[in-house]
Design goal:
The structure is a single chain. The protein is of the alpha+beta class and 119 residues long. 36% of the residues lie in helices and 15% in strands. The protein contains three helices and three strands. Strands 1-2-3 form a three-stranded mixed sheet, with helices on one face. A hairpin with a 3-residue loop joins strand 1 and strand 2. Helix 1 packs antiparallel against helix 3. The termini are far apart.
Length: 119
């Protein structure tokens, strides 16, 4: 192997975790980013709420919306929410913060008029 064929290894210094005050600003910026994207995507932008909770190692962004627009949030085969999760994860990881995006679970609506117990 000649000297021109040597493999060069580039090492990147690990990213330092953000301080508490700057990490809160970063989380707020992440929240605003999610809100701005969702407001452009959904029919009822006034019903969208994004909150976050900070855990020991993870920040959880919780998205709440009107039940009628939940399908727009999820998208066909989950593509919309998957894209949002990918962007948020990438942006927050760049800042040294692990992030998860959650959406509400709505239990199926039971129709009281369809009782099968009638004899």
């Amino acid at each position: 192997m000649s000297s021109n064929d040597d493999i060069k290894v580039i090492r990147v210094a690990p990213r330092r975790p953000a301080t508490d005050s700057s990490s809160n600003n970063i989380r707020e910026a992440g929240k605003e980013m999610i809100l701005s994207v969702l407001r452009l995507m959904m029919d009822k932008p006034e019903s969208i709420k994004v909150e976050y909770a900070v855990g020991e190692r993870t920040t959880v962004f919780k998205i709440e919306c009107h039940p009628e627009t939940l399908g727009q949030l999820i998208g066909a085969k989950g593509k919309n929410i998957s894209g949002i999760r990918a962007i948020v994860t990438a942006v927050m990881a760049r800042q040294g913060i692990r992030a998860i995006v959650e959406i509400p679970y709505l239990a199926p609506h039971k129709d009281n008029n369809s009782s099968h117990d009638e004899d």
